Amino acid sequence: MANTKPAANRNASDRKEDARVGYQVAVSLWTYEGEQNWARFNVMLVANSIIIAVLGLAATSQLSNQGSLGPLSVVLSVVGLLLSAAWFLITVRGFDYQKYYIVSAREMEQYLQETVKTASRGKLFADGQPVDIKIGEQTERVQMSWLSRRASAARLAKVVIVLFAILYILALIQVLLN
User: Fold this and answer.
1) What is the pTM of this model?
2) d(Cα 118, Cα 122) in Å, to the nearest integer?
3) Which residues pair with 142 in a beta bridge?
4) Pick from 56, 49, 73: which is nearest to 177 by CA?
5) Among residues 117, 103, 126, which one has the least CA distance to residue 29?
6) 121: exposed, middle or buried (C-beta count within 10 Å: 0-12, 13-18, 19+)?
């Protein structure tokens, strides 16, 4: 049931409950977007791998040396480059949405701060700052390593996509030079 009280008449408890629901929604969308990012990434990885495999077969076959597979190699390389461009844009957009949901969860945490700090501490952790996590009477300090901060999933995904694009460019150069 939706809260129908005007904003001015709502008490702190109602606002805190709204923040709790907003936080749950933001975390759910964050999780969903992350799953979708990797599902899209895997589909595009398979599609590009198939194109690269066919290009590799074309390059090593005797027919390729006679020039009859040259046009096929050009078409596959161009299609692969276009697919890589789309893959790159889809990946960047997906990670942007994921970041938005993370920041939204952090925004809601400010209203729940005495009990919920996961996304807020996650930002500090991702930035390489030490984070104290209290479990019972024990406090454990964790800190992300320098290498982990530099090798984020978003960066590595983009590197993979660029490597595929480079392979397509090299395939085009090979066909055009022969």
Assistant:
1) 0.79
2) 6
3) 131
4) 73
5) 103
6) middle
